Amino acid sequence: MTEKREIILDNLYGAVVEGDQNTALTLVKEALAVGTAPREILNDCMIMAMSEVGELFECGEYFVPEMLLSARAMKNGMNYLKPYLIEDGNKSNGRLALGSVKGDLHDIGKNVVTILLESAGIEVIDLGVDVPPERFVEAVRDDGVKVIGMSCLLTTTLPVMRDVIYHLGEAGMRNDVTVLVGGAPVTQDFADHIGADHFAPDANQAVKLAKSLFDA
Ligand code: B1M
After folding, report:
1. Per-residue pLDDT tens for 16-70?
2. CATH topology of domain 3-87
3. How far is the CA of 185 from the centre of ligand 1 (A)?
4. CATH superfamily, region 94-215
5. Is the CB of 124 under 6 A from ligand 1?
6. Is the Cα torsion angle 113, 40, 25, 19 positive or negative in sign?
């Protein structure tokens, strides 16, 4: 069974890298059917496949269309996995607004964070992608959220995170809200530098952190 599982996960990895969304979906179902943990499928296979896609893009073997196909295959599989990731009895009273910052259209990482937060019982207001600083401020003012999460994948959009914190300050709300930042180019040093409250390097850490904030 273990060998079969490994073959399925290897093929799933390949299907995401190749951007074959139908095969990816079939293999996610097969992986579940042979008892693979949903988080293993997500963290140890599909997310890793997306890293390889990034490397192929970086070395000029892949271009934007290939990245898009892989993203579609990843999303297809992720959507199917979502209900399997819900943890029973894991309820929290928290509510958090989360978005990819202005200029940034990457949403897979944000969606993984969203799914895992929701699976931990935390309500997420998904602000989407390309979210302007004003929308984060609105979420605090109008939706009453006490925690905002910003995701960023591009080095060029990193400064927007600082802008959001600046806008929160200008609106007199900085002390009313906890700011959590993450995404591939974000580091703890950067988070400290822009005055964010917390940095999470991955979705699991983001959930741990959010739970510690809400369940304190
Ligand atoms: Co883009 N892209 N992309 N891309 N893309 C990267 C990010 C890149 C690193 C690829 C590379 O060169 N190796 C590179 C950025 C380089 C840089 O800035 N230094 C890049 C580039 C250059 C671009 C374009 C500029 C390409 C172009 O047009 N010439 C363009 C920009 C578009 C824009 O945003 N304005 C672009 C476009 C795209 C697509 C649209 C084709 C597609 C995105 C589709 C989509 O998201 N719907 C895409 C993809 C797929 C990627 C890569 C290959 C994969 C990203 C991904 O989904 N990873 C990526 C390469 C890479 O990351 N290695 C790349 C899987 C995901 C689960 O990981 O998002 O890191 P990640 O999320 C993790 C953690 O970071 C963390 O948790 C997640 C799970 O553990 N996390 C948080 C994320 N947000 C968090 C928030 C938190 C806490 C943790 O708290 C709030």
Report:
1. 999 999 999 999 999 999 999 999 999 999 999 999 999 999 999 999 999 999 9
2. 1.10.1240
3. 9
4. Cobalamin-binding domain (3.40.50.280)
5. no
6. positive
